[in-house]
C-alpha cells in the first residue's frame, strides 16, 4: 500500500551468478536499476562484477514485463569504465540517460557519470 509496506518477496529477478562471457564482467550481477517502458517491457541496467570484484561494469537485461524472466543483452559491458549504482531514465524526447558512480579506473577519482543515447 506504500513504501512502508506490507512487502511481499518476489524471488530472484536476475540470476546473480554465472557468466555470459566466460567469467568476465557477468560473474556476479547486482544493483539492478529497472526502467519500465510504455509498452510494458522492462530494461534493467545492473552491475556485473568480475571474478574477485577487481572491476565492476554495467550490463543490460530485458524482460517482456516486470515479472521477468530477464535475459542478459550485453555480453560485453555497456561502457568501458569501472561503474556501479546505475540509474536509468528516458527524457521527454525518448532518449536514454544513465547516471552511475565511477570508481576511478579510466575516470580519475570518485565521480558521477552521465551517459546518454
Strand content: 35-45%
How widely separated are the two ends?
35 Å
Instruction: Report the mean per-residue pLDDT as an integer.
Output: 82
Q: What radius of gyration results from the CA coordinates?
A: 15 Å
Order of helices and strands: EEEEEEE
The helicity comes to under 10%
Structural class: mainly beta
Task: Please characterize this protein's 3D structure.
- The protein is mainly beta.
- 0% of the residues lie in helices and 41% in strands.
- The protein contains no helices and seven strands.
- Strands 1-2-3-4 form a four-stranded antiparallel β-sheet, with no helix packed on it. A three-stranded antiparallel β-sheet has the order 5-6-7, with no helix packed on it.
- The protein starts with 27 loop residues before the first strand and ends with a strand.
- 19% of the residues are buried.
- The model has no long low-confidence stretch (mean pLDDT 82).
Quick description:
The protein is mainly beta and 117 residues long.
Question: What characteristics describe this protein?
Answer:
four-stranded antiparallel sheet; three-stranded antiparallel sheet; mainly beta; 117 residues; 0% helix
Describe the secondary structure blueprint for this structure:
Layout: E1 28-36, E2 42-49, E3 56-63, E4 71-72, E5 83-90, E6 96-102, E7 111-116
Antiparallel strand pairs: 1-2, 2-3, 3-4, 5-6, 6-7
Amino acid at each position: 500500500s506504500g513504501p512502508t509496506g506490507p512487502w511481499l518477496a518476489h524471488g530472484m529477478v536476475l540470476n546473480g551468478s554465472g557468466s555470459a562471457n566466460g567469467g568476465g564482467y557477468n560473474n556476479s550481477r547486482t544493483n539492478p536499476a529497472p526502467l519500465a517502458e510504455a509498452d510494458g517491457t522492462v530494461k534493467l541496467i545492473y552491475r556485473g562484477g568480475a571474478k574477485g570484484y577487481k572491476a565492476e561494469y554495467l550490463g543490460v537485461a530485458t524482460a517482456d514485463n516486470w515479472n521477468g524472466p530477464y535475459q542478459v543483452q550485453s555480453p560485453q559491458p555497456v561502457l568501458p569504465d569501472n561503474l556501479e549504482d546505475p540509474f536509468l531514465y528516458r527524457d521527454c524526447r525518448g532518449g536514454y540517460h544513465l547516471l552511475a558512480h565511477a570508481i576511478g579506473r579510466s575516470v580519475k577519482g570518485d565521480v558521477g557519470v552521465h551517459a546518454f543515447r
